[in-house]
Amino acid sequence: MVLLVMGLLLGGILGPLSIRQEVNKRQNAEIMLQTIHDTLMGFAITHGYLPCPDADGDGREDRTNHRCHPIKDHHEIAIGQLPYVTLGVGYLDPWSNRFTYTVDPDFADSS
Question: Is pLDDT of 67 > 70?
Fold first, then answer.
């Protein structure tokens, strides 16, 4: 009987705790995304173009001859991971996933 009561009390505590943790993760993700947005805008203002995505996982933008590498069958978009080293931001979201980054190559053309 004591174990049953303890289980119910513990279950009543853990439910709201896990919900609070998820809320905190979402709030942290929102802050991280705003920071990434602001950093991308600062990069664009400073350089006159947006960075290319990181296609090889080194954290740096991948650019050839002033252009990004478009993905196969999608010549109008370049997709990869966030170039976090180039931007100086974090690369993992609160759930430990890498940020995906997509850009129209015309906005990332550095020529």
Answer: yes
DSSP 5-68: HHHHHHHHHHHHHHHHHHHHHHHHHHHHHHHHHHHHHHHHHHHSSPPPPBSSSSSS--EETTEE
Buried b / exposed e across 43-74, counting CB within 10 Å, b at 16+?
beeeeebbbbbbbeeebbbbbeeeebbbeeee
90 alpha carbon, distance to own chain's centre: 8
Copy the structure tokens of residue 18. 């896990």
- Predicted TM-score (pTM) of the model is 0.78
